[in-house]
Amino acid sequence: MRFDSFGNSGRNDGSHTRRFLRLERAAFNVRANKPREEIQMSLTQKLINDGGAVVDEMLAGIAAAHPDHACLLENAPRALVAKNGPRKGKVALIVGGGSGHEPTFLGYVGKGLADACAVGNVFASPPPQPVVDAAIAVNGDAGVLFLYGNYAGDVMNFDMAAELLEMEGIAARTVLTTDDIASAPRDQREKRRGVAGNVFIFKAAGAAADLMMPIDEVERIARHANDRTYTIGVALSSCSLPQTRRPNFDLPAGEMEIGMGIHGEPGIRRGPLRSANEVADEIMDAILAEMDAPAGARVAVLVNSLGSTPLMELYILNKRVAERLAEAGLTVHKTLVGPYCTSLEMAGASITVMHLDDELQRLIDHPCDCVMFRQG
Which domains are assigned to the chain? Predict the structure, then answer.
């Protein structure tokens, strides 16, 4: 049985709340008819205090750990703002989305990347007000660009925020990330989801803004980066929401799902778990076919953990990714390996390839100093 994610993975019309309540009632009924020991075994173990307070407690911990990089606004605790970076005459880059994907989104707040982040509940879009608060706090009178993944709840709430900002005399533009090539066919790219490729797309747009480029250029670069970024993931196990501590979808032991989204959205194929090389080959076959880069082209690579998959396994995947790119005559300019866009404790990984040109290469190499990502 698959449970829909809350907010980001579908409609944001209150139906996710009703689903959550039904799940809670079902969980209560199960608990009432099970021995105590069996109940404890069926719940996942998490180092939390209160499932309903995880986001705010996490944000307080981040503010305490990174006071030189970011702060929470006094009257807007779901808006994380860079200490350095925002300045007069600079395009303000605002990212955001649901919690549970750390270091995406809030980890990329800092000089050279995002000026602010609006933070939602776990797997749920931030409401409009934190987006507005973040934009006002970092507005440099050079324009505001919203950059976030293509999910219905996010689109609705960021669009509402743009309307509220317009009433304040601040114009905001939007670029949606759509790098997940498994989520829709090539001729329907506008329907695709934004996943781990956000890292490279945010990086390019953030560098352009840090270089004081005008809003038209920052927006163009964000779209250009998105158009040249390709991602597919593979899930090996479910994750569990802090509120329920139960798996949010079912993936039996010994199986994997290619193309699953970062909220548990259905992938394109489920089957027996295969070797790292076989998984990498299946993903790279799809990415290389769509990217269609000529021999001699340069790429940037991200081999990303979805949460619990360790670095050992990621580097094994990367070994095969590097071999496939070399066989295709492509030059790897930069490789990132680690947890850059997660799904709580989900086991699995994703592979992202950005097809570089001179402009994108300069931008992803540009220095940045963020809460959870530093370069140069």
Answer: 51-227 (3.40.50.10440), 229-356 (3.30.1180.20)
In sequence order, the 6+-apart residues with CB closer than 8 A to the CB of 333 are 298, 299, 300, 356, 361
Q: Is 101 known to be catalytic?
A: yes
**Burial, 38: exposed, middle or buried (Cβ in 10 Å; 0-12, 13-18, 19+)?**
exposed
172-177: strand order across its sheet: 70-73, 76-82, 116-122, 92-99, 144-149, 172-177
Q: How far is it, in rounded angstroms, from Cα 333 to Cα 360?
A: 11
Which amino acid is located at 248 in the chain? N
Please tell me the pTM assigned to this model: 0.89
Contact (CB, 8 A) for 108 and 160: no
> Which conformational region is residue 335 in: left (phi greater than 0), alpha (psi within -120 to 50 degrees), or beta?
beta
Mean pLDDT by 10 residues, the chain (376 residues): 34 41 45 46 90 97 97 94 96 98 98 98 97 98 98 98 97 98 96 98 98 98 98 97 92 95 94 98 98 98 98 98 98 98 98 98 98 96
Q: Which helix (H) or strand (E) holds 165?
A: helix 152-167
Rounded Cα gap, residues 310 and 339, in angstroms: 9
5: amino acid identity, one letter? S
Identified catalytic residue from 16, 66, 263, 366? 263
Choose, from 101, 224, 355, 366, the residue flagged as catalytic: 101
- Residue 263 designated active-site: yes
